[in-house]
Amino acid sequence: MNYRHSFHAGNFADLVKHALVLWLLGRRQADGPVAVIDSHAGAGLYDLTGDAARSREAEAGVARLMAAADRPPLIEALAAEVARLNPQGGAGLYPGSPLLIAGRLRPGDRYVGFEMNPPVLALLEQALAPFAEAVGMGGDGYAQAPGWAARAPGALVLIDPPFERPDDYLRAAETGAAIARADPRATVAVWTPLKDLETFDGFLRRLDRAGVKRALVAEARLRPLANPMKMNGCAMVVLNPPAGAAAAASEICGWVAGQLGDPGARAEVWMTGDAA
Question: Side-chain half-sphere of 237: how many Cα atoms within 13 Å?
């Protein structure tokens, strides 16, 4: 399964990911300066009349978000960021994680995002140019993130690969586990698509084998996990989750599943290692 950021920008999975990232950032900032490391940053800003218009996923995601009434606080926080980019209304532009994070950095905070595709890296650098505390860098984020995290104790690390490579699940698990093991103060959030239970369970087993015995799993299942060729939902797996993360994830995943999913859609938020 290929998950190019530009093709899927503004879909339901972005809403889950970005609303939770905003909450995690605010939670970490409450404890002092924070360094954010983004292993697969993408372009930072997306024109939804481009690639995303062909997939029409934004119509079922951010467009419905902006039209919804009575949004809960953590969903409203993301909607406010989208509205700031679109002062004339609607959702023609959508912010990726780099822009969302950079816009909330304070003096003393830091963001570094990695991108391997040179044309996309150029777009990332352009999007981050107004923000002195944020930088985009070329390179393999899997390889780079652990070293940067080691130099920034207590970092917030986002691992959000495009799942274009057959080893993405393995490398995401191993990179996240290495960072979380080395620094229990670091929070690592790994985004994954949900296609079928076997693939996702395999990812969680890889985390366990890599030494992560407990992690917060936040799932938004929009459809039954029956077709391995289709993204039926998404999950954020948070290693070393801060206090309050489960409640935040429940609010976000519950709204997305309830408002955007098929009949029978549901959210599941749970800890690995808990007794059944």
Answer: 27
Q: Looking at residue 163, what DSSP letter applies?
A: -
How far out from the chain centre does Cα 191 lie? Answer: 5
Is-contact 155 35, C-beta < 8 A? yes
Instruction: Yes or no: say if 235 and 225 are a contact pair by the CB < 8 Å rule.
Output: no
End-to-end CA distance of the chain: 31
Query: Residue 207: which residues within 8 A CB-CB, separation 6 or more?
Result: 173, 176, 177, 215, 237, 239, 272
Instruction: Tell me which DSSP letter residue 23 carries.
Output: H
Q: Give this prediction's pTM.
A: 0.94
Q: Which amino acid is at 141?
A: G
Task: Specify which residues 48 forms β-bridges with.
Answer: none
- Gap between the Cα atoms of 146 and 69, Å rounded: 41
* Exposure b/e, 54-67, CB count within 10 A at least 16 = b: ebebbebbbbbbbe
Instruction: Inform me whether the pLDDT recorded for 5 exceeds 70.
Output: no
Inter-CA distances, 133 with 145, 183, 237, Å:
17, 23, 26
- Class of residue 239 by CB neighbours under 10 A (exposed 0-12, middle 13-18, buried 19+): buried
Residue 43 pLDDT more than 70? yes
